[in-house]
From TrEMBL:
Pfam (any one): Rv2466c-like
Name of the molecule in the record: Disulfide bond formation protein DsbA
CDD domains xrefs: DsbA_family (cd02972)
Length: 200
């Protein structure tokens, strides 16, 4: 029986990227169907007292997350999935800046309306992005970032992984994640990270 998995991501987050690549690998070794959903670190961090450098970084993520919301609304989940891969490949392993130009190139890669990129800097997609963000926050609370994965009735932040496992190792990690999400009383496991994202 197919296991349906929902994954919420902000396109600019390298940890969400790692988790999403792991889940795509899981699809190859388990009977799993993934639905991707946009969320926004920009909206999540509104009104928070952040270090000025991190505030500038977060403010810069807006164009990408708002564009993802627009792609979801206009084209649907399957196209959003492809757009995320195109944009994430440019930003993360590709090292391109999060910018209107990079978003426009990713839209063009998928034969989508490149005008979405410039529009994402304004207010056109604001309510849309906030609606998607509310769905994500309602699942896990207001203090949790991206990625978020829902399996069955349980949604959790994470997992935060580096590098993303491949083949059967990816499937085994997913098997464990499913067991964790089956227990309603589970909330958190954590240790300090000793490496950054490994884009292999």
């Amino acid at each position: 029986m197919t296991t349906h998995v929902d994954l919420w991501f902000d396109p600019t987050c390298p940890w969400a990227w790692m988790t999403s690549r792991w889940m795509l690998e899981v699809e190859q070794v388990r009977d799993v169907a993934i639905t991707f959903h946009p969320m926004s670190l920009f909206i999540l961090n509104e009104g928070r007292d952040l270090d000025p450098g991190y505030r500038a970084h977060i403010d810069g993520t807006r164009v990408a997350s708002f564009a993802a919301a627009a792609v979801q609304e206009r084209y649907g989940h399957e196209v959003l999935r492809d757009f995320y891969t195109a944009l994430g490949t440019r930003i993360h392993p590709g090292g391109e800046p999060v910018s209107v130009e990079t978003v426009a190139h990713a839209l063009a890669d998928c034969d989508l309306d490149v005008g979405i990129a410039e529009a994402a800097t304004g207010d056109e997609f604001d309510a849309l992005a906030r609606g998607y963000q509310k769905v994500a926050q309602d699942l896990v609370g207001p203090d949790v970032g991206t990625p978020i994965i829902r399996v069955g009735g349980m949604a959790l932040f994470g997992p935060v992984i580096s590098p993303a496992p491949k083949g059967e190792a990816a499937g085994e990690l997913f098997d464990g994640f499913v067991k964790v999400t089956a227990y309603d009383g589970f909330f958190e496991l954590k240790r300090s990270r000793d490496r950054g994202p490994i884009f292999d």
